């Protein structure tokens, strides 16, 4: 999985990859981990500033962040595990629990709310047979309600792993879920920008 | 549709003119469109000259507050021997706003160019582009552009063969609306909780990493290259004295053609909603519009003739904000809409100030109760009073942000609230 | 405090009163100069960072459109501050109402009730009714360390505790987790705080969110009596307040003294002080007056008059026998002074003392506050009064055979040392063995007389700290039985021997000491006050 990444963009990788891997040994002793850490540290005047990029890196590989990971990140950046815990719980994109292979986040904020987002959310929960936040029995899905995803003109907006699905109507939900179920990667369809 | 729509209305696509053109994303394509010429020009100018042009253009911050950009840059200390930083605020997360996303994903080089020129103006050695974490695809596009810029000598050491150097780094956020507040953003950049800090110290004194810092919105920085290239007067041909130039409008809600548009500032709001966006899909009248993103005050359907300038919308009792009208047709349940907006602010409160931490969630609970039919007339008084207590008392304006829509919805749609209360109680109240 | 050569002072008006303060002073502190205490939660004078986040200390400043947090607002010339304007009062009242939205209002079972800044301000702002009709958020209780509990629902997220740990103790192990109204104070999951100064987070908590487990449900604040005292845990001499209830120490809190401990104290001292109150005590004077030749008879309880007469008689009969003494480095200056007088009378030159050793701990940002290796309050005092510090006293009782154990025909005086490890025949051969102590250890079994005295917590007195600062402590408890302050007892023995008057109050005892012992020259009981004063440098 080791890739050379330009240091200027090292902290800006997707958080939610479909492939859920684990680290082969301590995170920052892997080639990728070492590279990411060194690259990130070269971009900021303080070590601590690499905290969000490194948490993002862990999440991008594993799909979630557990306490043991926080300890490793803390050690790499000369922070206390408690401090890393404080940061990890402040930001909502760090999953502190495992999620399904398709992590479905349905925006229900105002513009989506005006475009039947609650129905879309209920549709995803019904179609996947889950309650909000839990992993479906087959491990495929976790569905949660999300705050504004910044694509309000394309309501309802649904984020599946690292992809946006736009203009989602309740009627489209069964088809989307079926498509995801069969697919290996996160999004059966990319956003318009891809 | 994600690039700007063409409509019968006169559109002025300056900033967004290359949105929708896939080749504009590449360095070659961008150069073919005249890209990085403004940067080249800026290298022959002194920082003071650049700042002066931007000052003269009257460009105002596009992140919501509308602070004059040139003036903000001029606050940066000169020759103080300290490192300076530029933070580009790409943490676009105001409900209703989705304009910066389009700038980033269609014209990433425009943003990079704007960042570099601004960095030169304020003497920054490093420009950090803080992109909200959810924007994965946008970030990938921007990543590719930054790498291209480095490889072409447009960023990093000795830019365009000059002796001037400036680094550009993309920093991904991780899910926090409050990281869009400038001090919150800098805290987040430094690896802290995105908690705004009480000013002073102001960013230009001690911002990111304790050094003089300027924070500018994506759209603001994206407007800089064209201003530098064409001059302040050129930019001032559009808009009003106090609101010059063109502006991106993110239109959402009950609209036939929602999306991003670019107009000269000053059109009547109704033209944008009806002519450009085609009015409501149901064909029913517009009941309400929140014109500047969810943290601005409601306008009712008969208040839409106001001019879309900073001053015009202020006069109308709302604000231009991020220029993101959220349109609601006649059938809209205003209480539910307001509850949903309040929920957002309660969810995004960082939790430092008491009024915001406790107030936002209390408002949500009251609105939920009213929505469930258990409201009492006294709730409306309570809400009004909470609005007063949550205004201007906190470190940042997140609490105020829920007050603007809440108070205006009570003023203009009181009947909607009362309709959910038991008739006997309303009469008694 | 002048910055960059600017004016040294500024003059402003607060609530109609003009006040001149050093430049750089914040309005909240300037207000205290005119007797106005602006309500506050996140501000604490001992914690450097000022996030201005509780919004409680907002004041109105003429010419400014918004209320300003007085904790960060710098006082400036001609500033007109109004802390009690309608706007400021309403804002304050609303903060209280907001804080009570989710607060459980469990004052009847809360240990902070009666000394709670939320409760107090609710009364002060007349915020006695709530409009909240919604269900409250419920979070529950957590353990922060082995002896500190966190009641999340009571917490006002002022972050004083977090910032004490981070700014003062430089230990980033206590943090705010989550955000918004879900925010709470936490350690890393599965780890507890482990810092020698962590007890201070309970003291800085303005409400009942952080509580020492040892104190939970133990006392209501209005049932406790507070006494100014000094921690006897080590020679630093942190200033403390001892809270007692029904003649028991239930809690110890640091008392501010900028020259010694700032606002803080260590956990060792805190626990040690609570423990000084425990254990079996010597409560009645004992004398051994029954035996004939060869049979020394038994110690028997007597009243004070009998005991003092008998001891004085024995000493008068001995003349100047010489001998040895063991004193305690935990004894007060006054006790040590009177023992010295007695030893001089007996021509005993050699007094030894031993100091228990322990781990040290430093509070990084307060250089004067350190838990020192010496685990005794008055090592300096013991030295001033001629004590000789020895290392091996406890191993075999006699540091040197002639001194420690006593020898025939000579005097042996012990002042409140427990004589741990002393042999069974300790002092058996001494001509006269006087044991003056708070407890009755086995090694006192051969004493000719035992005079029960009060602990430091049961009397008034002074200690001399590691740098020679003489600090007063006051009586927090009633001594048990017939135990009385050492200086009171010994002055009576000496008075019976024609040396001075019997002393009934500590002021007289102290002033007699100050008149006769050069290091204390010039000091007066009142002059020392509650913050202490340095002993004369040249004379130490």
From the structure above, extract its key features.
heterotrimer, A: about 190 residues, alpha+beta, Arc Repressor Mutant, subunit A, Glutaredoxin, 2 domains, four-stranded mixed β-sheet, 7 helices, about 10% strand, elongated, disordered C terminus, B: about 425 residues, alpha/beta, Rossmann fold, Ubiquitin-like (UB roll), de novo design (two linked rop proteins), four-stranded parallel β-sheet, 19 helices, 9 strands, globular
Structure characterization notes:
The complex is a heterotrimer of chains A (194), B (429) and C (540). Chain A is built from 7 helices and 4 strands, in the order ααααβααβββα. With 194 residues, chain A is α+β, with helices and mostly antiparallel strands. Chain A folds into 2 domains: 7-90, Arc Repressor Mutant, subunit A; 102-182, 3-Layer(aba) Sandwich (Glutaredoxin), CATH 3.40.30.10. Residues 186-194 of chain A have low confidence and may be disordered. Chain B is α/β, with parallel strands linked by helices. Chain B has 3 domains: 34-236, Rossmann fold (3-Layer(aba) Sandwich), CATH 3.40.50.11540; 246-329, Ubiquitin-like (UB roll); 334-428, de novo design (two linked rop proteins), CATH 1.20.1440. Chain B is built from 19 helices and 9 strands. Chain B has helices spanning 27-32, 37-43, 47-57, 69-74, 99-106, 108-122, 136-151, 182-189, 203-206, 218-230, 232-236, 269-276, 310-315, 334-348, 354-371, 377-389, 398-412, 414-419, 423-428, and strands at residues 84-90, 124-131, 167-172, 213-217, 246-253, 259-264, 286-290, 299-300, 326-329. The longest helix of chain B is centred in the last third of the chain and has 18 residues, at 354-371. The N and C termini of chain B lie far apart (49 Å). Chain C is of the alpha+beta class and 540 residues long. Chain C starts with 8 loop residues before the first strand and ends in a 6-residue tail after the last strand. The chains are: A alpha+beta (194), B alpha/beta (429), C alpha+beta (540).
């Amino acid at each position: 999985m080791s890739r050379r990444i330009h240091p200027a963009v090292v902290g800006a990788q997707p958080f939610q990859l479909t492939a859920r891997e684990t680290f082969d040994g301590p995170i920052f002793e892997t080639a990728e981990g070492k590279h990411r850490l060194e690259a990130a540290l070269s971009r900021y005047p303080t070590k601590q500033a690499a905290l969000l990029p490194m948490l993002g890196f862990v999440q991008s590989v594993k799909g979630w962040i557990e306490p043991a990971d926080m300890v490793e990140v803390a050690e790499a950046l000369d922070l206390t595990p408690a401090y890393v815990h404080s940061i990890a719980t402040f930001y909502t994109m760090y999953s502190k629990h495992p999620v399904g292979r398709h992590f479905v986040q349905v925006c229900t904020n105002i513009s989506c709310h005006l475009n039947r987002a609650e129905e879309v959310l209920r549709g995803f929960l019904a179609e996947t047979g889950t309650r909000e936040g839990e992993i479906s029995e087959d491990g495929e899905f976790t569905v949660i309600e999300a705050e504004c995803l910044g694509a309000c003109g394309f309501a309802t907006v649904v984020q599946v792993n690292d992809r946006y699905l736009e203009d989602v109507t309740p009627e489209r939900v069964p088809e989307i879920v079926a498509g995801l179920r069969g697919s290996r990667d996160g999004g059966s369809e990319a956003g318009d920008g891809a | 549709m994600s690039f700007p729509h063409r409509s019968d209305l006169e559109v002025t696509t300056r900033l967004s003119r290359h949105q929708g053109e896939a080749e504009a994303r590449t360095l070659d394509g961008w150069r073919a469109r005249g890209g990085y010429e403004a940067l080249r020009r800026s290298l022959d100018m002194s920082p003071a000259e650049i700042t002066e042009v931007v000052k003269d253009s009257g460009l105002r911050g596009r992140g919501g507050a509308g602070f004059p950009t040139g003036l903000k840059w001029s606050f940066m200390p000169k020759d103080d021997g300290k490192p300076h930083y530029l933070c580009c605020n790409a943490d676009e997360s105001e409900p209703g706003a989705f304009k910066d996303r389009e700038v980033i994903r269609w014209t990433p080089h425009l943003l990079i160019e704007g960042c570099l020129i601004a960095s030169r103006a304020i003497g920054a050695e490093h420009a950090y582009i803080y992109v909200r974490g959810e924007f994965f695809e946008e970030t990938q596009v921007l990543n590719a552009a930054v790498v291209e810029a480095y490889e072409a000598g447009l960023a990093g050491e000795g830019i365009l063969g000059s002796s001037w150097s400036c680094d550009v780094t993309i920093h991904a956020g991780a899910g926090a609306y409050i990281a869009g507040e400038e001090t919150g953003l800098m805290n987040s950049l430094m690896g802290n909780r995105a908690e705004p800090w009480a000013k002073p110290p102001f960013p230009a004194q001690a911002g990111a990493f304790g050094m003089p810092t300027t924070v500018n919105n994506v759209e603001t920085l994206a407007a800089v290259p064209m201003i530098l290239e064409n001059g302040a007067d050129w930019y001032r041909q559009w808009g009003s004295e106090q609101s010059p130039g063109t502006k991106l409008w993110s239109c959402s809600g009950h609209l036939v053609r929602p999306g991003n548009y670019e107009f000269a500032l000053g059109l009547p709001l109704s033209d944008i909603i009806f002519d450009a966006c085609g009015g409501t899909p149901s064909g029913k009248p517009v009941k309400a519009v929140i014109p500047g993103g969810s943290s601005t005050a409601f306008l009712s359907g008969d208040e839409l003739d106001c001019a879309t300038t900073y001053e015009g919308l202020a006069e109308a009792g709302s604000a231009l904000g991020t220029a993101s009208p959220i349109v609601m047709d006649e059938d809209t349940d205003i209480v539910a809409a307001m509850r949903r907006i309040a929920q957002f602010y309660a969810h995004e409160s960082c939790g430092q100030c008491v009024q915001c931490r406790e107030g936002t969630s209390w408002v949500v609970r009251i609105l939920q109760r009213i929505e469930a039919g258990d409201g009492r007339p006294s709730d409306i008084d309570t809400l009004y009073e909470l609005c007063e207590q949550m205004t201007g008392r906190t470190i940042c304006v997140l609490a105020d942000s829920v007050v603007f829509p809440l108070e205006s919805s009570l003023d203009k749609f009181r009947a909607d609230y009362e309709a959910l209360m038991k008739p006997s109680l309303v009469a008694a109240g | 405090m002048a910055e960059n050569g600017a004016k040294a002072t500024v003059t402003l008006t607060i609530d109609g009163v003009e006040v001149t303060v050093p430049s750089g002073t914040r309005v909240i502190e300037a207000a205290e100069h005119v007797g106005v205490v602006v309500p506050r939660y996140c501000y604490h004078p001992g914690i450097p960072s000022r996030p201005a986040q509780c919004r409680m200390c907002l004041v109105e400043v003429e010419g400014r459109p918004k209320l300003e947090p007085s904790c960060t607002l710098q006082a400036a010339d001609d500033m007109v501050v109004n802390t009690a304007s309608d706007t400021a009062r309403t804002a304050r009242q609303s903060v209280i109402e907001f804080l009570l939205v989710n607060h459980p209002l469990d004052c009847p079972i809360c240990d902070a009730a009666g000394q709670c800044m939320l409760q107090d301000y609710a009364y002060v702002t007349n915020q006695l009714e709530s409009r909240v009709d919604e269900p409250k958020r419920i979070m529950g209780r957590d353990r922060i360390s082995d002896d500190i509990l966190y009641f999340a629902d009571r917490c006002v997220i002022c972050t004083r505790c977090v910032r004490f740990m981070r700014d003062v103790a430089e230990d980033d192990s206590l943090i705010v987790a989550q955000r918004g109204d879900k925010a709470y104070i936490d350690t890393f999951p599965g780890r507890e705080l482990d810092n020698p100064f962590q007890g201070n987070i309970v003291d800085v908590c303005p409400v009942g969110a952080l509580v020492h487990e040892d104190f939970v449900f133990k006392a209501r604040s209005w049932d406790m009596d507070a006494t100014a005292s000094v921690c006897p845990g080590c020679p630093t001499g942190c200033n403390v307040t001892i809270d007692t209830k029904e003649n028991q120490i239930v809690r110890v809190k640091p008392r501010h003294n900028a020259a010694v401990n700032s606002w803080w104290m260590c956990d060792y001292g805190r626990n040690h002080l609570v423990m000084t109150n425990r254990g079996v005590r010597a409560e009645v004077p004992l004398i051994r007056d029954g035996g004939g030749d060869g049979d020394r008879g038994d110690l028997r309880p007597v009243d004070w008059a009998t005991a003092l007469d008998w001891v004085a008689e024995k000493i008068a009969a001995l003349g100047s026998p010489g001998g040895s003494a063991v004193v305690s480095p935990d004894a007060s200056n006054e006790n040590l002074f009177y023992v010295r007088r007695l030893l001089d009378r007996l021509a005993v030159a050699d007094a030894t003392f031993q100091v228990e050793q322990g781990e040290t701990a430093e509070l990084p940002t307060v250089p004067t506050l350190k838990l020192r290796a010496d685990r005794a309050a008055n090592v300096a005092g013991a030295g001033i009064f001629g004590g000789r510090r020895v290392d091996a006293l406890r191993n075999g009782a006699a540091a040197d055979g002639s001194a420690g154990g006593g020898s025939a025909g000579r005097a042996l005086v012990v002042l409140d040392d427990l004589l741990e490890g002393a042999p069974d025949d300790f002092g058996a051969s001494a001509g006269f063995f006087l044991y003056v102590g708070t407890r009755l250890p086995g090694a006192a079994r051969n004493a000719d007389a035992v005079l029960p005295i009060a602990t430091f917590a049961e009397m008034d007195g002074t200690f001399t700290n590691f740098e020679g600062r003489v600090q007063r402590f006051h009586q927090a408890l009633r001594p048990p039985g017939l135990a009385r302050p050492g200086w009171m007892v010994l002055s009576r023995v000496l008075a019976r021997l024609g040396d001075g008057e019997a002393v009934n109050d500590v002021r007289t005892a102290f002033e007699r000491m100050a008149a006769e012992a050069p290091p204390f020259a010039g000091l007066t009981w009142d002059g020392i006050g509650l913050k202490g004063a340095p002993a004369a440098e040249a004379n130490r």
